[in-house]
Write a structure and sequence with these properties.
Number of strands: 8
Shape: globular
Radius of gyration: 18 Å
CATH class of the largest domain: Alpha Beta
């Protein structure tokens, strides 16, 4: 019996390739997503990581989402043609997902496209019959996430969704800001979500990857156990399933 192939040996036999797109222009966020995902890439799969060279450094509302989509589409046409799937690593109902789907249809490409927002919400619904919430970047009321989740659930009155609670941390600050302050705000927001009954907490930005222990520990301080969903990690597994299920 021959020995199993190593990852390097498998690279020449790779049949599945994924492009992970961070649609904002912050390389620090792309790097964090890459570091989080790379240990979970199966043999026989390759992943490459991309962010546009221009456009907003962070995505906080529909306007910056649209601007980032336009920046991506200045560079992605042609580039995405060689991949089997694209994972859009922005926690929003990002316009790049339908834009790439339309691009693939027009070019007759067999290209699966998925957003980490959709992967995160779907996973939360599967992991609990109770309540879930989102720990979000920025400040104030995240109307875009509230509306997108209501659309996903098919209901504006579901009591399963306790809502997004913002951390008052910008996307860029997640990786480049004072990490003591980032941790403090992540822990405080976690406690707020737990007090609202959340049993599952979704990371509301790809740049939050690796911060799961803060959330679990903060919930434990409230006497609660929570599950943490990393939409980027779950999205990577889901897009592989979409590719191989077609």
């Amino acid at each position: 019996m021959s020995s199993p192939l190593t990852r390097s040996e498998m690279s020449s036999h790779t049949s599945t390739s994924i492009l992970v797109v961070n649609p904002n222009s912050s390389f620090s966020i792309t790097r964090a997503i890459k570091q989080s995902l790379e240990p979970h890439i199966p043999l026989g799969v390759t992943a490459e990581f991309f962010n546009p060279s221009t456009g907003p450094a962070g995505i906080s509302d529909p306007a910056t989402a649209q601007s980032s989509c336009e920046a991506c589409m200045e560079e992605l046409p042609g580039l995405v043609d060689k991949y089997d799937g694209v994972l859009v690593a922005c926690f929003s109902d990002h316009p790049l997902v339908p834009t790439l789907e339309l691009y693939a249809k027009d070019k007759n490409l067999c290209l699966s496209v998925l957003g980490i927002y959709h992967a995160g919400i779907a996973t939360a619904l599967l992991r609990t019959r109770g309540k879930f919430g989102i720990i979000a970047t920025g400040s104030g009321i995240k109307t875009n996430l509230i509306e997108a989740t209501a659309k996903f659930l098919g209901s504006t009155t579901s009591d399963r969704f306790v809502g997004p609670i913002t951390t008052d941390i910008s996307v860029v600050e997640l990786q480049e800001g004072d990490q003591v302050e980032v941790e403090r705000k992540m822990r405080s927001t976690t406690r707020d979500l737990v007090r609202k009954g959340a049993e599952v907490i979704i990371l509301g930005c790809g740049g939050m990857c690796g911060m799961e222990p803060w959330i679990v520990d903060s919930a434990a301080e409230e006497g609660r156990q929570v599950q943490v969903v990393d939409g980027a990690r779950m999205g990577f597994h889901m897009i592989l399933a979409l590719i191989h299920g077609t």
